[in-house]
């Protein structure tokens, strides 16, 4: 029975208000139980780093995610490994066989020039939905705000359906300082110039998630969410945690 006035959330197969989880090797039995309860509030599942390549029963895992209308894909590190070893054709074949329809083009580990990434996007777009990532996993590598915006524009113009802002699973690189503090000036610049519905902000901790919910709204796209945190995140989105308690119903329709 629903009786509270809560922020309005997107439903069904979402295109925004997305929760993208990071699966770093969740066993099949455990995953089955998690999805039975929380599958309806998970939209995308990244099989983190290059873990998909060594995951037992990976085809069964992909199938399980898809049974709950969750879009699975392999972490960008696997793409980068294949790029480094000139195995892109083999990677495409691997994704076909697994039934994976989404691919991430990233440069979190390798310094792949933007021109090369754009070529990869054009190649994969023929048969896959493409997500690209901006930012480095190396906390010592700094990108100017103008560089962030330049790359994001090029990636969107190339046809990426979403662009991820790098944050790592630790929240200490990319859009975050080494200390874990959010680069708020950068975020303000990005949301001023781009459609928030097309950006997935990596936000691995409750602190990071609440920042974006309060800054953008409950239907902000959030990534690198831990599987065991999805219910708490949904409660945060709905104003059911102290830090998001006073979200107004009107302002929460910002991204609908």
UniProtKB/TrEMBL annotation:
UniProt xrefs under SUPFAM superfamilies: (2r)-phospho-3-sulfolactate synthase ComA (SSF102110)
Pfam families cross-referenced by the UniProt entry: ComA
Signal sequence segment: none
Family: Belongs to the phosphosulfolactate synthase family.
The protein's name: Phosphosulfolactate synthase
Phylogenetic lineage: Bacteria, Bacillati, Bacillota, Bacilli, Bacillales
